[in-house]
Structures are given as structure tokens and as C-alpha cells.
Amino acid sequence: MRTSLLFHALAVASSITGSHAAPSPGCSSGGAFVPDSVVNVTVGDDRYYLVYIPVNYDPEEPAPLVLSFHGGSRIAEQQLNLDNLTSKAFNRDYIVAYPNGVDKTWYGVSGVTTDDIGFTTTVIDEISAAYCVDTARLFATGKSQGGGFVGQLACNTTASRRIAAFAPVSAVFYISAPWFGDTCKPATVPIKPTINYGEGPRKDGCLPTIPHWAQMWASCDGLGPANASRPLTDEGAVLYEWGSAEGKRGLVSHVFSGPNIDHSWPSTFNNPDNILHKDGPASFNATTMILEFFEKYPLP
């Protein structure tokens, strides 16, 4: 499996870099589009997703595609209003898809068994047929439970061969006990009131310490256990990167948002998260870092 991982807390990228644009069927469709607009697309009787067409979209030039997954108890429209990926100040080139979860949740959480990986595949296929997509530059991000589902995609053999890089934000990673050893112990250093930065039980599963989760991804990508760290801002944000010894620095990266940031999408201005949690603005923009990370790691 080839994966790339950044997270804010985290990101994972393909271990092989350097690619050229791979046009999708939509590059020859000549379909109608309106730049800087959002389209609502229904799938079957009970699913839908939103598609944002960037201001620089050209139907003859393959464009990268980002999938952005909402958090638990949220819907696609709320994620669109949170992640800044539809703002021309942050994104002028990436098509962005916002899949909507069944009952405001995603596969793998508290017994939820909806085929969200199949739904994600359908979203990719439909957008690739309707628009000119660079299939070597498909990416995934998400917040909280949606970020945890991004981790599910990164672990899925089929999805990880299509999606080049993954950037879950403040994610909930429900994992099996072997990651801890034999037990799931309560966290000793809770950083985030909603989701602990340290390991511990939650709902019907176990959560890892976030640094351990990043280190395990580094191991899966064939990188050594050591990371290089540096302050990201003067307000306590820190960037950790694995892969220096192998010449792949940053292939797996972890951003600690700082001690004063709650379960929020980091932003240097007010957004729905930091207003709700009263913890912002943050000292950096997660959206900028995510897009810079994606730019570095297309599929070969």
C-alpha cells in the first residue's frame, strides 16, 4: 500500500513522487460548468455530494480533486463552510467534493456499516466522468469523524491506490487493540476535550495517541521511527516530519496545533469551529498547509 499522511493533527502521502497529469474521461465530455460555483449531485435514493468548481477550472486541463469529509453530527454543507477550500483566497485550482454521510456519520464509527468506501468510489468516478480531472492528483481531507474516515480510506487497498495523499484534521481514529499492546487505557494527557490527544477508550473503540499513530504510518511507509521537529509558529504549533533518513522528509507529517486549540479546524480567522469551541483563531491555516502538502505528493 502506498500512502501519504499529514495531520493537523496529521498527513500521509504516496511513497513515490513525480508524476504527470492523467486526464479523466470528463476531459473530452465538453460538459457545461460555471466557475466558482457549487453543484448538488444525488446518488441513488438517499445519498448526495456537493461539487465545487474552482475559478480557474479549464475543461481541457486536468484539475486536481480534493474529497472533504464532514464531522460527526454534521453535513456536507457545514464542511464546505468550514474548510476554506471554496475560498478563492485559498483555492483557485482544485475541484472539491463534499460527500454527505448517512445519518451524519461515517463507516467504522460505533458499529456504522454503510458502504462509504463504495460511495466515495462512486463520487470519484462520477466527477471524473463529468469534469476534467487529473486522476494522479486525487486527495482526501476531513474533520473529526470525517478525518477518521480519511484514515479508513488510507488503509483501504483500493482507495489508497487511487487517492494520492490524505490529510485528516482533528481526526477520530478508532483502531484495534494491537496498536496499544493488549489494552485500551484512559488517556493521561488530554489535550482536546472532544478527542484526546493521548490514547484511550471512546464509544465502542480505542483511540491511539496521535504521535504513535503517525509513527505507525511512518513504519508502514518504510520510514524510520525518528522524526525531525520544528516550531511552526510562535504560539506553540509544532511540525513533526518523518523520512529524513530515507530522503523522503515530510512523507508522513504531524502538526500539533498548540495547547490552546480545541477540537477545531485551525484557522487564523474566525470559523464555525473556533467560534463554537471558543479557542481561536489559531496561529496557522490548516487549509494552506493541506494544499501545499497535496501539491508535493501526486501519484506516479
UniProtKB/TrEMBL annotation:
<feature type="signal peptide">
    <location>
        <begin position="1"/>
        <end position="21"/>
    </location>
</feature>
<protein>
    <recommendedName>
        <fullName>feruloyl esterase</fullName>
        <ecNumber>3.1.1.73</ecNumber>
    </recommendedName>
</protein>
<dbReference type="GO" id="GO:0030600">
    <property type="term" value="F:feruloyl esterase activity"/>
</dbReference>
<dbReference type="GO" id="GO:0005576">
    <property type="term" value="C:extracellular region"/>
</dbReference>
<dbReference type="InterPro" id="IPR043595">
    <property type="entry name" value="FaeB/C/D"/>
</dbReference>
<keyword id="KW-0119">Carbohydrate metabolism</keyword>
<keyword id="KW-0858">Xylan degradation</keyword>
<keyword id="KW-0964">Secreted</keyword>
<dbReference type="GO" id="GO:0045493">
    <property type="term" value="P:xylan catabolic process"/>
</dbReference>
<keyword id="KW-0732">Signal</keyword>
<dbReference type="InterPro" id="IPR029058">
    <property type="entry name" value="AB_hydrolase_fold"/>
</dbReference>
<keyword id="KW-0378">Hydrolase</keyword>
<keyword id="KW-0624">Polysaccharide degradation</keyword>
